[in-house]
Amino acid sequence: MKEKVAALIQEIENATIDNHDALEAFRIKYISRKSVVAELFGNLKDVAPEERKGMGQLLNELKNMANDKFKNLSSQMEQTTTKVAHSPVDLTLPPVPNSLGTRHPLNLVRGRIIEIFERIGFNVSEGPEIEDDWHNFSALNFPENHPAREMQDTFFIEKVADTGREIALRTHTSSVQVRVMEGEKPPIRTLSPGRVFRNEAISARAHCVFHQVEGLYINKNVSFADLKQTLYHFVKEMFSKDTKIRFRPSFFPFTEPSAEIDISCQICNGAGCNICKYSGWVEIGGSGMVDPQVLINCNIDPEEYTGFAFGMGIERITMLKYQIKDLRLFTENDIRFLQQFSVIS
Question: Both 131 and 60 in a single domain?
Answer without folding.
Answer: no
